Amino acid sequence: MSHTAHIRSHRKPRRSASKIAMRAGVAGGVLSTLAVAGASGAANAAEPVTQTLELPTLTADLAAQVAESATATELAAANYELQAERDAAAAKAAKEAKADLAEAKKKAEARKKAAEAARQAAAERAERAARDTERPTLTATASVATSASTSTATGSAASVISFLKAQVGKAYVLGATGPSAYDCSGLVGAAFKQVGISLPRVSQDQSTAGTPVSLSNLQPGDILYWGSAGSAYHVAVYIGDGKFIGAQNPSTGIVEQPLSYDPPTGAVRVL
Fold first, then answer.
1. Cα(191)–Cα(173) distance, rounded to whole angstroms?
2. Is 177 strand, coil or helix?
């Protein structure tokens, strides 16, 4: 026996033909399967893929909700439109009311002015009527007084007359004592105040404040009155040359007039 007979060979044992054939068959089957899958994938890639989505069916409840929502939307829109119309109408009404108020105020002011003018005219007519009732006839004596009393004022009388002439043209306002407006006794009192003489406030008292003088013997600075002494309703101041200055009425204001314009009843002298 050889000395190497019990030493195992280092080479791998040969595979049997049957195993090799089996493995070849398996490999072939796998390759065939891959080939078929590749072909199928290529075919599928060439065709578009269509996906169908199914929407939920519109049920009766859902339809009712949609209809109700639409109705609510329409109602809200109608309410908004109605409110806009109401706001526009309110704004228009407010504007018209403001215009009507302004017009009413304007008319009221016009009526007030007309009433005041009528009142002043009535007061003037009443005063004129009272003077006509109390006025004596302008006699020859008064005419003599008019022509004779032409002396130039001097001293205090000149100061009084200068003040009076400066007031001519100003307004007559009942109860006013100057400097922009006067009534008849307010003007006389202010004139004599310039020379330090304080007279009573009203015409009734001014008609008895000095020494009574005849209308035929008037001097510049004498106080003229209309009505009775102690109850006179009007006063003025004689300035010479047959003229006087007085606050006559609201219509004429403070004027310079001849005695014949409104002959006085009497006169008093305080200078």
1. 16
2. strand
Q: What are the sequence ranges of the domains in the chain?
A: 75-134, 139-269
**Would you identify the CATH topology of the domain 139-269?**
endopeptidase fold (from Nostoc punctiforme) (3.90.1720)
Residue 264 has pLDDT above 80, yes or no: yes
The pair of three-digit structure tokens given for residue 98, joined into one six-digit string: 């403001």
Q: Is the peptide bond before 179 cis (omega within 30 degrees of 0)?
A: yes
Q: Are 247 and 254 in contact (CB under 8 A)?
A: yes
* pTM of the full structure: 0.49
Instruction: Give the C-alpha separation, 64 to 226, whole Å.
Output: 101
Enumerate the H helices of 135-224 as residue ranges: 140-148, 155-167, 184-193, 203-206
pLDDT of amino acid 15? 52
Banded model confidence at residue 63, pLDDT cuts 50, 70, 90: confident
Mode of pairing for the β-strands spanning 266-269 and 223-226 = antiparallel
The span from the CA of 238 to the CA of 150, in Å, is 11
Distance of CA 202 to the CA centre of its chain: 43
Q: Which residue has the tokens 């009413």?
A: 104
Q: With contact defined as beta carbons under 8 Å apart, do 234 and 127 qualify?
A: yes
